[in-house]
Design brief:
The chain is an alpha/beta fold. It is built from 17 helices and 14 strands. It is 45% helix and 17% strand. The structure holds adenosine-5'-diphosphate (ADP).
Protein backbone atom coordinates (compact mmCIF):
# COMPACT_ATOMS: atom_id res chain seq x y z
CA UNK A 1 0.00 0.00 0.00
CA UNK A 2 1.38 3.40 -0.95
CA UNK A 3 2.27 5.81 1.82
CA UNK A 4 -0.20 8.70 2.14
CA UNK A 5 1.08 12.24 2.61
CA UNK A 6 -1.52 14.63 4.00
CA UNK A 7 -0.65 18.29 3.62
CA UNK A 8 -2.83 20.79 5.44
CA UNK A 9 -2.35 24.27 6.82
CA UNK A 10 -2.77 22.95 10.35
CA UNK A 11 -1.53 19.60 11.59
CA UNK A 12 -3.42 18.14 14.56
CA UNK A 13 -1.63 17.82 17.83
CA UNK A 14 -0.55 14.15 18.10
CA UNK A 15 -1.74 14.10 21.71
CA UNK A 16 -5.21 15.39 20.83
CA UNK A 17 -7.55 12.43 20.34
CA UNK A 18 -11.22 11.49 20.09
CA UNK A 19 -13.76 14.09 21.08
CA UNK A 20 -11.31 16.98 21.34
CA UNK A 21 -9.81 16.54 17.88
CA UNK A 22 -11.47 18.14 14.84
CA UNK A 23 -13.77 15.99 12.71
CA UNK A 24 -11.40 15.96 9.75
CA UNK A 25 -8.50 14.83 11.92
CA UNK A 26 -10.54 11.95 13.33
CA UNK A 27 -11.82 10.88 9.90
CA UNK A 28 -8.40 10.97 8.31
CA UNK A 29 -6.81 9.10 11.19
CA UNK A 30 -9.38 6.34 10.88
CA UNK A 31 -9.04 6.11 7.12
CA UNK A 32 -5.27 5.90 7.22
CA UNK A 33 -5.06 3.59 10.22
CA UNK A 34 -3.74 0.72 8.09
CA UNK A 35 -1.19 2.54 6.04
CA UNK A 36 2.01 4.45 6.49
CA UNK A 37 1.25 8.14 6.52
CA UNK A 38 2.94 11.49 6.92
CA UNK A 39 0.98 14.55 8.02
CA UNK A 40 2.71 17.74 6.96
CA UNK A 41 1.93 21.43 7.55
CA UNK A 42 2.19 24.46 9.81
CA UNK A 43 2.86 23.82 13.50
CA UNK A 44 0.51 26.62 14.59
CA UNK A 45 3.56 28.42 16.05
CA UNK A 46 5.38 31.48 14.76
CA UNK A 47 9.10 32.15 14.92
CA UNK A 48 11.43 34.87 13.70
CA UNK A 49 11.73 33.19 10.29
CA UNK A 50 9.97 30.28 8.59
CA UNK A 51 11.82 27.03 9.34
CA UNK A 52 13.58 25.31 6.43
CA UNK A 53 13.17 21.77 7.78
CA UNK A 54 10.19 20.37 9.69
CA UNK A 55 10.10 19.02 13.23
CA UNK A 56 9.01 15.38 13.15
CA UNK A 57 7.03 13.31 15.67
CA UNK A 58 6.33 9.66 15.08
CA UNK A 59 3.24 7.83 16.37
CA UNK A 60 3.06 4.24 15.12
CA UNK A 61 2.68 4.29 11.33
CA UNK A 62 1.89 8.01 11.33
CA UNK A 63 4.55 10.71 11.28
CA UNK A 64 3.76 14.37 11.92
CA UNK A 65 6.07 16.92 10.28
CA UNK A 66 5.48 20.58 11.06
CA UNK A 67 7.08 23.90 10.20
CA UNK A 68 7.01 27.06 12.31
CA UNK A 69 6.11 30.12 10.24
CA UNK A 70 7.99 33.40 10.40
CA UNK A 71 5.88 36.27 11.83
CA UNK A 72 5.79 38.14 8.54
CA UNK A 73 4.96 34.98 6.54
CA UNK A 74 2.18 34.13 9.01
CA UNK A 75 0.68 37.63 8.62
CA UNK A 76 0.85 37.67 4.83
CA UNK A 77 -0.01 34.04 4.04
CA UNK A 78 -2.44 33.11 6.79
CA UNK A 79 -4.12 36.24 8.17
CA UNK A 80 -3.73 38.10 4.89
CA UNK A 81 -4.22 36.19 1.68
CA UNK A 82 -5.85 33.02 3.06
CA UNK A 83 -8.25 34.57 5.58
CA UNK A 84 -8.81 38.13 4.37
CA UNK A 85 -8.72 37.49 0.59
CA UNK A 86 -9.48 33.89 -0.35
CA UNK A 87 -11.95 33.06 2.45
CA UNK A 88 -14.43 35.87 1.58
CA UNK A 89 -13.94 35.46 -2.19
CA UNK A 90 -14.56 31.72 -2.15
CA UNK A 91 -17.67 32.33 -0.01
CA UNK A 92 -19.02 34.76 -2.67
CA UNK A 93 -18.29 37.83 -0.51
CA UNK A 94 -16.09 39.84 -2.84
CA UNK A 95 -17.06 43.05 -1.06
CA UNK A 96 -15.30 41.83 2.11
CA UNK A 97 -12.13 40.68 0.32
CA UNK A 98 -8.98 42.74 0.71
CA UNK A 99 -6.23 42.33 -1.81
CA UNK A 100 -2.59 43.20 -1.25
CA UNK A 101 0.22 42.20 -3.61
CA UNK A 102 2.51 41.66 -0.60
CA UNK A 103 0.05 39.22 0.97
CA UNK A 104 -0.22 37.32 -2.31
CA UNK A 105 3.56 37.09 -2.59
CA UNK A 106 3.72 35.91 1.04
CA UNK A 107 1.10 33.24 0.29
CA UNK A 108 3.09 31.92 -2.65
CA UNK A 109 6.30 32.10 -0.61
CA UNK A 110 4.88 29.91 2.17
CA UNK A 111 3.56 27.38 -0.37
CA UNK A 112 7.04 27.28 -1.93
CA UNK A 113 8.59 26.84 1.53
CA UNK A 114 6.19 23.96 2.30
CA UNK A 115 7.08 22.30 -1.02
CA UNK A 116 10.82 22.73 -0.48
CA UNK A 117 10.60 21.24 3.03
CA UNK A 118 8.31 18.38 1.94
CA UNK A 119 10.04 17.31 -1.30
CA UNK A 120 13.10 15.70 0.37
CA UNK A 121 10.79 13.62 2.59
CA UNK A 122 8.89 12.08 -0.35
CA UNK A 123 9.38 8.57 -1.72
CA UNK A 124 8.57 7.80 -5.37
CA UNK A 125 5.38 5.81 -4.67
CA UNK A 126 3.88 8.27 -2.15
CA UNK A 127 0.39 9.69 -2.69
CA UNK A 128 0.17 13.37 -1.78
CA UNK A 129 -3.17 14.87 -0.66
CA UNK A 130 -3.26 18.64 -0.12
CA UNK A 131 -6.17 20.21 1.77
CA UNK A 132 -7.97 23.47 1.24
CA UNK A 133 -7.58 27.00 0.02
CA UNK A 134 -4.31 27.65 1.80
CA UNK A 135 -2.60 25.34 -0.66
CA UNK A 136 -3.70 26.15 -4.21
CA UNK A 137 -0.04 26.54 -5.40
CA UNK A 138 1.46 23.66 -3.43
CA UNK A 139 1.11 21.14 -6.27
CA UNK A 140 2.83 23.33 -8.83
CA UNK A 141 5.58 24.16 -6.30
CA UNK A 142 6.13 20.43 -5.71
CA UNK A 143 6.36 19.86 -9.48
CA UNK A 144 8.92 22.69 -9.60
CA UNK A 145 10.90 20.75 -6.98
CA UNK A 146 10.90 17.79 -9.40
CA UNK A 147 8.24 15.70 -7.64
CA UNK A 148 6.57 13.14 -9.92
CA UNK A 149 4.23 11.60 -7.33
CA UNK A 150 0.44 11.52 -7.72
CA UNK A 151 -0.90 14.76 -6.27
CA UNK A 152 -4.45 15.38 -5.06
CA UNK A 153 -6.17 18.54 -3.84
CA UNK A 154 -9.44 18.89 -1.93
CA UNK A 155 -11.19 22.23 -1.47
CA UNK A 156 -13.26 22.21 1.73
CA UNK A 157 -14.94 25.56 1.04
CA UNK A 158 -17.17 26.54 -1.93
CA UNK A 159 -15.82 27.50 -5.33
CA UNK A 160 -17.81 30.43 -6.80
CA UNK A 161 -18.71 31.09 -10.44
CA UNK A 162 -15.75 32.11 -12.56
CA UNK A 163 -17.09 35.63 -13.16
CA UNK A 164 -16.84 36.26 -9.43
CA UNK A 165 -13.56 34.45 -8.80
CA UNK A 166 -11.83 36.09 -11.75
CA UNK A 167 -12.34 39.52 -10.15
CA UNK A 168 -9.65 38.49 -7.66
CA UNK A 169 -6.28 39.82 -8.83
CA UNK A 170 -3.96 36.97 -9.86
CA UNK A 171 -6.88 34.51 -9.87
CA UNK A 172 -5.69 33.11 -13.22
CA UNK A 173 -2.42 32.00 -11.62
CA UNK A 174 -4.26 30.23 -8.81
CA UNK A 175 -6.48 28.36 -11.28
CA UNK A 176 -3.49 27.39 -13.40
CA UNK A 177 -1.73 26.14 -10.23
CA UNK A 178 -4.55 23.65 -9.71
CA UNK A 179 -3.74 21.99 -13.04
CA UNK A 180 -0.64 20.51 -11.37
CA UNK A 181 -2.87 18.18 -9.34
CA UNK A 182 -3.92 14.77 -10.70
CA UNK A 183 -7.16 14.70 -8.69
CA UNK A 184 -9.07 17.89 -7.86
CA UNK A 185 -11.89 17.42 -5.36
CA UNK A 186 -14.64 19.80 -4.24
CA UNK A 187 -17.70 19.41 -2.01
CA UNK A 188 -20.64 19.68 -4.42
CA UNK A 189 -21.61 19.34 -8.09
CA UNK A 190 -22.14 23.13 -8.24
CA UNK A 191 -18.59 23.74 -7.01
CA UNK A 192 -17.31 21.20 -9.54
CA UNK A 193 -19.14 22.90 -12.42
CA UNK A 194 -17.79 26.32 -11.35
CA UNK A 195 -14.23 25.07 -11.06
CA UNK A 196 -14.36 23.24 -14.39
CA UNK A 197 -15.60 26.43 -16.07
CA UNK A 198 -12.75 28.39 -14.46
CA UNK A 199 -10.12 25.88 -15.63
CA UNK A 200 -11.52 25.92 -19.16
CA UNK A 201 -11.55 29.74 -19.15
CA UNK A 202 -7.88 29.67 -18.10
CA UNK A 203 -6.92 27.29 -20.92
CA UNK A 204 -6.74 24.16 -18.78
CA UNK A 205 -9.46 22.00 -20.38
CA UNK A 206 -7.65 18.76 -19.60
CA UNK A 207 -7.40 19.62 -15.89
CA UNK A 208 -11.14 20.37 -15.93
CA UNK A 209 -11.76 16.65 -16.57
CA UNK A 210 -9.93 15.84 -13.32
CA UNK A 211 -12.42 17.80 -11.15
CA UNK A 212 -15.01 15.80 -9.22
CA UNK A 213 -17.31 16.27 -6.22
CA UNK A 214 -16.53 14.27 -3.07
CA UNK A 215 -19.08 15.48 -0.46
CA UNK A 216 -17.56 15.18 3.00
CA UNK A 217 -19.46 13.38 5.77
CA UNK A 218 -19.21 12.92 9.52
CA UNK A 219 -18.73 9.86 11.67
CA UNK A 220 -22.49 9.56 12.14
CA UNK A 221 -22.47 6.43 14.36
CA UNK A 222 -19.88 8.04 16.63
CA UNK A 223 -21.92 11.22 16.94
CA UNK A 224 -25.13 9.29 17.61
CA UNK A 225 -23.40 7.37 20.38
CA UNK A 226 -22.09 10.63 21.84
CA UNK A 227 -25.61 12.11 21.84
CA UNK A 228 -27.13 8.97 23.39
CA UNK A 229 -24.63 9.11 26.24
CA UNK A 230 -24.87 12.86 26.73
CA UNK A 231 -28.67 12.87 26.95
CA UNK A 232 -28.35 10.78 30.11
CA UNK A 233 -25.72 13.04 31.65
CA UNK A 234 -26.08 15.76 34.26
CA UNK A 235 -25.28 18.67 32.01
CA UNK A 236 -28.09 17.88 29.56
CA UNK A 237 -30.45 17.16 32.45
CA UNK A 238 -29.75 20.60 33.96
CA UNK A 239 -30.27 22.27 30.62
CA UNK A 240 -33.52 20.38 30.01
CA UNK A 241 -34.81 21.44 33.43
CA UNK A 242 -34.07 25.06 32.64
CA UNK A 243 -36.30 24.83 29.55
CA UNK A 244 -39.36 23.95 31.68
CA UNK A 245 -41.03 22.10 28.81
CA UNK A 246 -40.42 24.75 26.13
CA UNK A 247 -39.41 23.61 22.63
CA UNK A 248 -35.71 24.15 21.96
CA UNK A 249 -34.28 25.58 18.74
CA UNK A 250 -30.50 25.17 18.49
CA UNK A 251 -27.83 26.87 16.38
CA UNK A 252 -24.13 25.93 16.55
CA UNK A 253 -21.59 27.83 14.48
CA UNK A 254 -18.21 29.45 14.61
CA UNK A 255 -18.80 33.18 14.86
CA UNK A 256 -18.15 33.90 11.19
CA UNK A 257 -19.78 36.26 8.69
CA UNK A 258 -20.49 33.35 6.34
CA UNK A 259 -22.87 31.76 8.86
CA UNK A 260 -25.75 34.23 8.38
CA UNK A 261 -26.19 34.90 12.10
CA UNK A 262 -27.68 38.46 11.95
CA UNK A 263 -30.26 37.33 9.39
CA UNK A 264 -30.96 34.24 11.50
CA UNK A 265 -31.52 36.29 14.68
CA UNK A 266 -33.75 38.61 12.69
CA UNK A 267 -35.68 35.57 11.42
CA UNK A 268 -36.22 34.36 14.98
CA UNK A 269 -37.39 37.85 15.92
CA UNK A 270 -39.88 37.64 13.05
CA UNK A 271 -41.13 34.28 14.31
CA UNK A 272 -41.93 35.82 17.68
CA UNK A 273 -43.50 38.90 16.10
CA UNK A 274 -45.60 37.11 13.46
CA UNK A 275 -46.43 33.73 15.03
CA UNK A 276 -47.53 34.79 18.48
CA UNK A 277 -48.55 31.29 19.55
CA UNK A 278 -44.85 30.54 20.11
CA UNK A 279 -44.37 33.33 22.66
CA UNK A 280 -43.17 31.82 25.94
CA UNK A 281 -43.25 28.35 24.34
CA UNK A 282 -39.89 28.28 22.57
CA UNK A 283 -36.25 28.89 23.53
CA UNK A 284 -33.50 29.42 21.00
CA UNK A 285 -29.94 28.59 22.07
CA UNK A 286 -27.19 29.86 19.77
CA UNK A 287 -23.67 28.68 20.53
CA UNK A 288 -21.14 30.70 18.52
CA UNK A 289 -17.58 30.65 19.78
CA UNK A 290 -15.49 33.60 18.71
CA UNK A 291 -13.06 32.86 15.88
CA UNK A 292 -10.51 35.18 14.32
CA UNK A 293 -11.37 37.72 17.02
CA UNK A 294 -8.44 39.95 16.02
CA UNK A 295 -9.95 40.75 12.59
CA UNK A 296 -12.11 43.91 12.23
CA UNK A 297 -14.98 42.23 10.29
CA UNK A 298 -15.34 39.65 13.04
CA UNK A 299 -15.32 42.29 15.79
CA UNK A 300 -18.08 44.27 14.10
CA UNK A 301 -20.12 41.10 13.54
CA UNK A 302 -19.89 40.37 17.23
CA UNK A 303 -21.16 43.83 18.09
CA UNK A 304 -24.04 43.46 15.65
CA UNK A 305 -25.05 40.14 17.19
CA UNK A 306 -24.88 41.56 20.72
CA UNK A 307 -27.33 44.23 19.57
CA UNK A 308 -29.70 41.67 18.03
CA UNK A 309 -29.74 39.61 21.22
CA UNK A 310 -30.43 42.73 23.29
CA UNK A 311 -33.20 43.86 20.96
CA UNK A 312 -35.00 40.48 20.77
CA UNK A 313 -34.76 39.73 24.47
CA UNK A 314 -35.51 43.33 25.43
CA UNK A 315 -38.69 43.38 23.35
CA UNK A 316 -39.99 39.88 23.94
CA UNK A 317 -38.71 38.48 27.24
CA UNK A 318 -40.96 37.78 30.19
CA UNK A 319 -39.76 37.68 33.80
CA UNK A 320 -39.62 33.88 33.50
CA UNK A 321 -38.68 33.54 29.78
CA UNK A 322 -35.56 34.51 27.85
CA UNK A 323 -36.38 33.82 24.17
CA UNK A 324 -32.77 33.85 22.90
CA UNK A 325 -29.83 32.41 24.84
CA UNK A 326 -26.51 33.25 23.25
CA UNK A 327 -23.05 31.91 24.15
CA UNK A 328 -19.74 32.84 22.56
CA UNK A 329 -17.79 30.24 24.55
CA UNK A 330 -16.81 26.96 22.90
CA UNK A 331 -18.76 23.96 24.18
CA UNK A 332 -17.42 20.41 24.28
CA UNK A 333 -18.56 18.00 21.57
CA UNK A 334 -20.39 15.62 23.95
CA UNK A 335 -22.30 18.54 25.47
CA UNK A 336 -23.20 19.83 22.02
CA UNK A 337 -24.36 16.38 20.94
CA UNK A 338 -26.66 16.17 23.99
CA UNK A 339 -28.08 19.65 23.38
CA UNK A 340 -28.69 18.81 19.72
CA UNK A 341 -30.64 15.68 20.69
CA UNK A 342 -32.74 17.74 23.04
CA UNK A 343 -33.59 20.29 20.35
CA UNK A 344 -36.89 20.13 18.50
CA UNK A 345 -35.37 22.23 15.72
CA UNK A 346 -31.83 22.52 14.31
CA UNK A 347 -31.37 25.96 12.75
CA UNK A 348 -28.50 26.04 10.24
CA UNK A 349 -28.61 29.01 7.86
CA UNK A 350 -25.17 29.88 6.46
CA UNK A 351 -25.13 32.40 3.60
CA UNK A 352 -22.65 30.04 1.92
CA UNK A 353 -20.92 26.97 3.27
CA UNK A 354 -18.66 24.37 1.67
CA UNK A 355 -20.60 21.55 3.35
CA UNK A 356 -21.73 22.37 6.91
CA UNK A 357 -21.12 19.51 9.25
CA UNK A 358 -23.35 20.88 11.99
CA UNK A 359 -26.41 20.05 9.86
CA UNK A 360 -25.22 16.45 9.56
CA UNK A 361 -24.42 16.30 13.28
CA UNK A 362 -27.92 17.52 14.15
CA UNK A 363 -29.43 14.70 12.07
CA UNK A 364 -27.14 12.08 13.64
CA UNK A 365 -27.92 13.29 17.18
CA UNK A 366 -31.71 12.80 16.94
CA UNK A 367 -33.81 10.31 18.86
CA UNK A 368 -35.01 7.79 16.20
CA UNK A 369 -38.41 7.59 17.95
CA UNK A 370 -38.99 11.33 18.10
CA UNK A 371 -36.56 13.24 15.88
CA UNK A 372 -36.48 17.01 15.52
CA UNK A 373 -36.77 19.00 12.29
CA UNK A 374 -33.90 20.68 10.46
CA UNK A 375 -34.16 24.19 8.99
CA UNK A 376 -31.32 24.50 6.51
CA UNK A 377 -29.90 27.08 4.13
CA UNK A 378 -30.22 26.32 0.41
CA UNK A 379 -26.65 27.54 0.13
CA UNK A 380 -25.05 24.98 2.44
CA UNK A 381 -23.15 22.30 0.52
CA UNK A 382 -25.06 19.77 2.63
CA UNK A 383 -28.46 20.85 1.23
CA UNK A 384 -28.59 18.40 -1.73
CA UNK A 385 -27.80 15.53 0.68
CA UNK A 386 -30.46 16.49 3.23
CA UNK A 387 -33.71 16.53 1.26
CA UNK A 388 -35.82 16.10 4.38
CA UNK A 389 -34.75 19.49 5.71
CA UNK A 390 -36.89 22.61 5.40
CA UNK A 391 -34.77 24.60 2.95
CA UNK A 392 -34.69 28.38 3.27
CA UNK A 393 -33.03 31.35 1.66
CA UNK A 394 -30.82 32.50 4.56
CA UNK A 395 -31.05 36.14 3.43
CA UNK A 396 -34.82 36.22 3.98
CA UNK A 397 -35.73 36.50 7.69
CA UNK A 398 -39.43 36.02 6.91
CA UNK A 399 -38.71 32.74 5.17
CA UNK A 400 -36.68 31.65 8.20
CA UNK A 401 -39.59 32.58 10.49
CA UNK A 402 -42.07 30.62 8.38
CA UNK A 403 -39.81 27.55 8.31
CA UNK A 404 -39.31 27.79 12.08
CA UNK A 405 -43.08 27.88 12.57
CA UNK A 406 -43.50 24.88 10.29
CA UNK A 407 -40.73 22.99 12.13
CA UNK A 408 -42.10 23.79 15.58
CA UNK A 409 -45.61 22.63 14.65
CA UNK A 410 -44.60 19.63 12.53
CA UNK A 411 -46.36 16.37 13.53
CA UNK A 412 -44.18 13.49 14.67
CA UNK A 413 -45.10 11.37 11.64
CA UNK A 414 -43.81 14.01 9.25
CA UNK A 415 -40.65 14.54 11.32
CA UNK A 416 -39.98 10.80 11.17
CA UNK A 417 -40.62 10.62 7.43
CA UNK A 418 -38.26 13.52 6.76
CA UNK A 419 -35.56 12.39 9.18
CA UNK A 420 -35.23 8.64 8.41
CA UNK A 421 -33.76 8.88 4.89
CA UNK A 422 -31.40 11.65 5.99
CA UNK A 423 -30.11 9.56 8.89
CA UNK A 424 -29.58 6.56 6.56
CA UNK A 425 -27.77 8.68 4.01
CA UNK A 426 -25.61 10.15 6.78
CA UNK A 427 -24.50 6.71 7.93
CA UNK A 428 -23.82 5.54 4.37
CA UNK A 429 -21.74 8.55 3.32
CA UNK A 430 -19.58 9.11 6.36
CA UNK A 431 -16.20 10.70 6.81
CA UNK A 432 -14.38 7.42 6.35
CA UNK A 433 -16.12 6.67 3.05
CA UNK A 434 -15.23 10.18 1.89
CA UNK A 435 -11.54 9.67 2.68
CA UNK A 436 -11.43 6.27 1.05
CA UNK A 437 -13.12 7.42 -2.16
CA UNK A 438 -10.69 10.32 -2.54
CA UNK A 439 -7.71 8.07 -1.86
CA UNK A 440 -9.04 5.53 -4.39
CA UNK A 441 -9.20 8.28 -7.02
CA UNK A 442 -5.67 9.32 -6.12
CA UNK A 443 -4.44 5.76 -6.49
CA UNK A 444 -6.55 5.37 -9.61
CA UNK A 445 -4.52 6.40 -12.66
CA UNK A 446 -0.91 6.06 -13.69
P1 LIG B 1 -16.83 25.38 9.68
O1 LIG B 1 -15.83 24.35 9.27
O2 LIG B 1 -17.01 26.52 8.72
O3 LIG B 1 -16.64 25.90 11.08
P2 LIG B 1 -18.74 23.14 9.80
O4 LIG B 1 -20.19 23.16 10.19
O5 LIG B 1 -18.46 22.41 8.54
O6 LIG B 1 -18.27 24.66 9.71
O7 LIG B 1 -17.86 22.45 10.92
C1 LIG B 1 -17.86 22.98 12.21
C2 LIG B 1 -17.43 21.92 13.23
O8 LIG B 1 -17.09 22.61 14.43
C3 LIG B 1 -18.55 20.97 13.57
O9 LIG B 1 -18.01 19.68 13.82
C4 LIG B 1 -19.15 21.56 14.85
O10 LIG B 1 -19.74 20.61 15.73
C5 LIG B 1 -17.95 22.22 15.48
N1 LIG B 1 -18.41 23.40 16.23
C6 LIG B 1 -19.05 24.45 15.71
N2 LIG B 1 -19.40 25.31 16.70
C7 LIG B 1 -18.98 24.78 17.84
C8 LIG B 1 -19.06 25.15 19.22
N3 LIG B 1 -19.71 26.24 19.60
N4 LIG B 1 -18.45 24.37 20.12
C9 LIG B 1 -17.84 23.24 19.74
N5 LIG B 1 -17.76 22.81 18.47
C10 LIG B 1 -18.32 23.57 17.54
Amino acid sequence: MNRLIIVANRVPNPRERGATAGGLAVALREAIAHRQALWFGWSGQTAEATAAAPAETRQGRLTYATLDLGEEDYRRYYRGFANATLWPTLHYRLGLAQFSREDYIGYRKVNAAFAAALAPLLRPSDLVWAHDFHLFPLGSELRRQGCRQRLGFFLHVPFPPYGLFSALPRSGELITDLAAYDVIGVQTEDDAANLRAALIAENQPEAATRVAAYPIGINAEGFTALAERAILGQETARFRQSLVGRALVIGVDRLDYTKGLPQRFCGYGQLLARFRQHLSRVTYLQVAPVSRGDVAEYRSLRKELDEWVGRINGQQAEPDWVPLRYMTRAVSRPTLAGFMRLARVGLVTPLRDGMNLVAKEYVAAQDPEDPGALVLSRFAGAAPQLPGALLVNPLDPDEIAEALDQALTMPREERLARWRPMAEEGRASGARAWCLSFIAALEGGG
